[in-house]
Design brief:
211 residues, Rossmann fold, 5-stranded parallel beta sheet, 40% helix, binds guanosine-5'-monophosphate
């Protein structure tokens, strides 16, 4: 029997800046060819090592507002003083085709998608939420400083927001505590695989020919 035809998972990852969402995502994308990443739009400046159209679509505030006006976003929010948004076009077709999509978005964005899913049956079937947490505040600070890509002001803002973000863990279905990078990745990849076995996303009865 061939694998049953299913919709893809919309895998929402949230957690404080520096918890390790990007590293877990990069490892998963390198391992699973049928997994993809939803490239968000942002009005923040490009950091060293980032590429436009790969890490984000880096947009002016005017261009971002144009997307809002056209209703192009599945969700958008102001995070650490900049706008970030998920384009519908990054998600819809891939999920229809049965491909899993990772969304690295903040707690407000996740909340907005969950609210949308209350009225959208397909989204409700596809959305899964994972909270990625650092093992401690001291470790979070160490990682943010260690990246060497953020200004002191940006680090302070991110640390300031971390407490508020951490208090949202209960709104997520799954929790990965990123203490040891390899162990956290083992948990994460296990979750991706397990979610592929969910009956919730099957497009049709997989046994209709056998009965
Ligand atoms: P960074 O500036 O470190 O890349 O991201 C800052 C925060 O913005 C992270 O918590 C990240 O998850 C969040 N973020 C990235 N893209 C989006 C998006 O499309 N929507 C929302 N709501 N948050 C996002």
């Amino acid at each position: 029997m061939t694998a049953p035809i299913r919709y893809g998972t919309v895998l929402i990852l949230s957690g404080p800046s520096g918890a390790g969402k990007s590293t877990l995502t990069s490892r998963a994308l390198a391992e699973f060819p049928d997994l993809s990443f939803s490239i968000s739009c942002t009005t923040r400046a490009l950091r060293g090592g980032e590429k436009d159209g790969v890490d984000y679509y880096f947009l002016s505030k005017e261009k971002f507002e144009e997307h809002i006006a056209k209703g192009d976003f599945l969700e958008y929010a102001c995070v650490h003083g900049n706008f970030y948004g998920t384009l519908r076009s990054e998600v819809a077709r891939r999920v229809e085709e049965g491909r899993d999509v990772i969304l690295d978005i903040d707690v407000q964005g996740a909340q907005k998608i969950l609210e949308r899913a209350e009225k959208d049956e397909l989204l409700a079937r596809c959305v899964e939420t994972v909270f990625i947490a650092p093992p401690s505040r001291a470790e979070l600070e160490r990682r943010l400083r260690g990246r060497g890509t953020d200004s002191e002001e940006s680090i302070a803002k991110r640390l300031g927001n971390a407490g508020r973000e951490l208090s949202c863990w209960k709104q997520y279905k799954y929790l990965v505590i990123n203490d040891d990078a390899d162990k956290a990745y083992e948990n994460f990849r296990g979750l991706i695989l397990a979610l592929r076995s969910s009956t919730k996303r099957l497009k049709e009865d997989p046994f209709h020919e056998q009965r």
